[in-house]
Specification:
mainly alpha, 6 helices
C-alpha cells in the first residue's frame, strides 16, 4: 500500500473514531455504498480517487483543506526522487 493511501485511510479512521461512527455510517452519511468505504479501507486497494475523498469529506461536513490539514500528510516523504 502506498504511504499516501495509508495516510488517507488513517485520517478517515481518526475522523470516524472522533465522531464515534462506523465505516457503514460514513458511507450512509456520504451517500455511497458501504462497499465503497470498505474498499477504501482495504489493504488490497492501492489507490483512492480525490473524488471519493471529497464525497466522504462532504458527508463528514469538512472541506478537503480540513481533511488534508493533518500530521498524517505533513509527515509524508517526497514521492519524486
Amino acid at each position: 500500500m502506498s504511504a499516501v493511501k495509508d495516510a488517507v485511510v488513517k485520517r478517515f479512521r481518526t475522523l470516524c473514531k472522533e465522531r464515534d461512527i462506523a465505516p457503514n455510517e460514513l458511507a450512509n452519511i456520504s451517500g455511497v455504498t458501504p462497499s465503497t468505504v470498505y474498499s477504501l479501507f482495504s489493504d488490497t486497494r492501492r489507490n483512492v480517487s480525490i473524488t471519493t475523498i471529497k464525497i466522504l469529506c462532504d458527508g463528514l461536513e469538512i472541506s478537503l483543506g480540513e481533511f488534508f490539514s493533518a500530521p498524517e500528510f505533513d509527515e509524508l516523504e517526497q514521492e519524486i526522487t
